[in-house]
Amino acid sequence: MLDSKLLGRRIRERRMQSGLSQAELAKSLHIQPSTLCEYEAGRITPSLKVFVDMVNGLACTANDLLPDSMNSHQLKPEEVTEERLHSVCQIINSIKD
Fold first, then answer.
1. How far apart are CA 80 and CA 47, in angstroms?
2. What is the CA radius of gyration of the chain?
3. Share of the chain above pLDDT 90, in %
4. pLDDT, tens digit, for every residue of 60-80?
């Protein structure tokens, strides 16, 4: 499970290291500064598209932002469901677009 608060802290830390204000990063992501504030507070999580744009805008890798538990998690066979497979296919298709 994604730790939204930790993701938000990492987004904020990386943004500050990059010398960007919330307004500047939000503008480059085509989102409202208030939305970025919600991401950084961990109240909401970015869509995959916004996350990828954020990684590119902050000149970092996804691993720099994702909590460590997300980087090393491997699904057990019993955790693979039709719903998860469908979600993975949607993610892959959105990346291709």
1. 22
2. 14
3. 54
4. 998 888 866 544 455 566 766
Please, what's the b/e burial string for 19-48 (b: 16 or more CB within 10 A of its CB; e: otherwise)? ebebeebbeebebeeeebebbbebeeebee
Listed as ranges, residues in the chain with pLDDT below 70 are 1, 67-77, 79-80, 96-97
Token match 């954020």: residue? 54
User: Which position has the token pair 């994702």?
Assistant: 66
CA distances from 87 to 29, 48, 71, 75 (A): 23, 12, 18, 14
The tokens describing 57, both together, are 């805008």
pLDDT for residue 68 = 65
Q: Quick one: which of 81, 2, 6, 74 has its CA closest to 40? A: 6
Query: Whose structure tokens read 């970025």?
Result: 36
